[in-house]
Amino acid sequence: MPGEFTSEPDADEAIAEARKLFAKPCLFEKSVVRIDDLPDDGVVEVAFAGRSNVGKSSLLNALIGRRDMARTSNTPGRTQALNLFNIADGALRLVDMPGYGYAKAPKTLVDGWNRLIQDYLRGRVELRRLCLLIDARRGVGAGDRAVMDGLDSAAVSYQVVLTKSDKLKSAELERVRAETEEALKKRAAARPEVLVTSSQKSRGIVELRAALVGLARPAP
Ligand SMILES: Nc1nc2c(ncn2[C@@H]2O[C@H](COP(=O)(O)OP(=O)(O)OP(=O)(O)O)[C@@H](O)[C@H]2O)c(=O)[nH]1
Ligand SMILES: [Mg+2]
């Protein structure tokens, strides 16, 4: 099959490009609590969402190879604003979002999550991909499904990423991954592949970078 020969070099190329991009300087830009305070510079954005404590800030730190650029915490619900990080002087912006579902699973995006996030997800033209993080031990929950419903209807392209894979044995992990991929088949805006990561063990980070590099402004 010709496809078998074309896919491999592409994957290698993406990994090499991604390594270069994520090795470039990354700056914390600002914390935003009002939609009007978002930058108006046209830089492409990738946001990180998921339940409180799922590991969003940790994954963002792992991606940019910094220990504590995005603040992590044992206290769920720590990240309250949209925190913006700028890679390579505007090649890409990473957005760390507040977690959802700490008190109870939201029935809809409207009542479960705050207005800022809703406006951001529905209206932000610069948002090209949302990484939806799911704890590998929990799998897809009611809150995650409510968020996916919102993303599908707003046509926000999203990538599901399993986190904390170091907490599961490989057979169990494979079962959760396969189940999650199956659940995404009916979802219009979901990327079909589920990525498996551990920020603690640095697993799946290269693959996640490679999945995002194509969205960034090409290097000059
Ligand atoms: N074992 C393990 N623990 C992790 C991993 N990633 C994050 N954690 C832990 O999970 C907890 C929450 O991590 P955060 O990155 O702060 O999670 P968050 O999703 O940003 O949390 P909020 O901003 O409060 O919603 C911390 O105690 C982390 O050390 C991982 O890959 N493996
Ligand atoms: Mg956080």
List its salient traits.
7 helices, Rossmann fold, binds guanosine-5'-triphosphate, binds magnesium ion, single chain, 220 residues, alpha/beta, 7 strands
Summarize the structure in words.
There is one protein chain. The protein has seven helices and seven strands. A seven-stranded mixed β-sheet has the order 1-3-4-2-5-6-7, sandwiched between helices. Helix 1 crosses helix 7 (205-213). The longest helix has 22 residues, at 2-23. Residues 104-112 have low confidence and may be disordered. With 220 residues, the chain is of the alpha/beta class. The protein has one domain (2-213): Rossmann fold, CATH 3.40.50. The structure holds guanosine-5'-triphosphate and magnesium ion. Residues 50, 52-58, 72-74, 76-79, 99, 163-164, 166-167, 198-200 line the site of guanosine-5'-triphosphate.
